[in-house]
Design goal:
The structure is a single chain. With 416 residues, this protein is α+β, with helices and mostly antiparallel strands. It has helices at 150-157, 189-195, 200-212, 233-237, 240-255, 284-289, 300-313, 332-341, 361-365, 391-398, 402-411, and strands spanning 2-5, 10-13, 17-23, 29-36, 48-49, 55-56, 59-62, 65-69, 79-86, 102-107, 110-114, 125-134, 137-147, 221-227, 260-266, 270-277, 319-325, 347-354, 377-383. Strands 1-11-10-3-8-7-6 form a seven-stranded mixed β-sheet, with no helix packed on it. Helix 9 (361-365) links the parallel strand 18 and strand 19. The longest helix has 16 residues, at 240-255. It is elongated, with a radius of gyration of 24 Å. The termini are far apart. The model is unreliable at 163-182 (pLDDT under 50).
Amino acid sequence: MTNTLAKGGNAPLLAGNCKVTLTARQTDIDVCAVLLSRDGKVRSDDDLVFYNHSAQDGVVLGGQSVSADLSVVPGAVDRIVIVASIDPQGPAACFNADNTPQAVIDSGGVQLTFSPPPFVHRETAAVLVELYRRAGGWKVRAVGQGWDTGLAGLATDFGVVVDDDGSAPDAAATGSSGSSGASMPAISLEKVQRSAPGLVDLYKAAHVSLAKNRVVGQRAAVYLVLDHSGSMGGFYDDGTVQHLAEQALGLSANLDDDGTVPLVFFSHEVDLITDISLGNYQGRVDRLHKALDWGGTCYAPAMQAVIDHFRASGSSDPAFVIFQTDGDPFDRRETRELLRQASSLPIFWQFVGFGLSRDLRFLRSLDTLGDRTIDNAGYFGAGQHPRRRSDADLYDRLMKEFPDWLVTARAAGVIR
């Protein structure tokens, strides 16, 4: 007996073996499965079942089919999603109305089919169906949700980190804009787990954002510039600035292989140039800033310190600067001129405003400053309570303009 599922529809499954087969007309596809816990994330990277890891906890991949012995799947696994992705060696660039994949589900002699509505937004990977627990049994749901970031983007959304040891899918399908051709994070998940376990979640969240924005594999030196003017005291006292430094490290571990972020404290002058790393990050901002005096607010000295440091480093990769402040500067003219001069350098300035929007009017204006070689700056206001923002939201906002800058900078010869 064969029944047809509509998108969003579900049906019960019999205990025992269930087989899901995916096919697509006019194109070759890769099939995989992802085992998810109640929070919608994998327990570990082993929960991705694909061509290079074909079995996990009763779920087995064989060609175009995934077989699941539902009677032995561990209780920690709440659902199993079945995924189709475009074969990167095939002629099709993405799914479309002619090659949208279909699913056939076999359970105890009962066959179900699902043909999702055509994918028409350049999706290159899709969850066709999911097997999920309900009231002590198992059911199947027709999902039909696509991703335009490839299998790597889909997998990272479920918490999988594409590592650099060949044990996970090739992330090149994400369309990375990295110049080196690399498709993996600069530092492996294993190394972060070993050297800085408290940063693993930040590392993964940053990786998801990079995948969504198609910059997985890009290499860049991440800098962090921190405002130490008198009005910043509360943000230091409540741990907000320390957390921003940890977020910067999580991003840097994906973009730079040295595990270190150059760190500049500034007020009306440069107060301190140092670094924060995977090995010393815990409580470091608090320890450093307590030895500094509070001051006023001037941007240009801190910006020049970054430029000088970057030039001295001899880096062949661009720089991504997180420049945090809670107020407009005294040196507006100098700041504008320096940002214009720096627009011919491979440095992108991501300004992050803490506090009230009315106190950051000048900072916002830098995002649209004229007379630059290329647009080399972005801005977002984190509000009066930046710590309340999710890590995922912060990384998405940090990446809002950087991918376009990379493309423009290469076209203009700013990045070589």
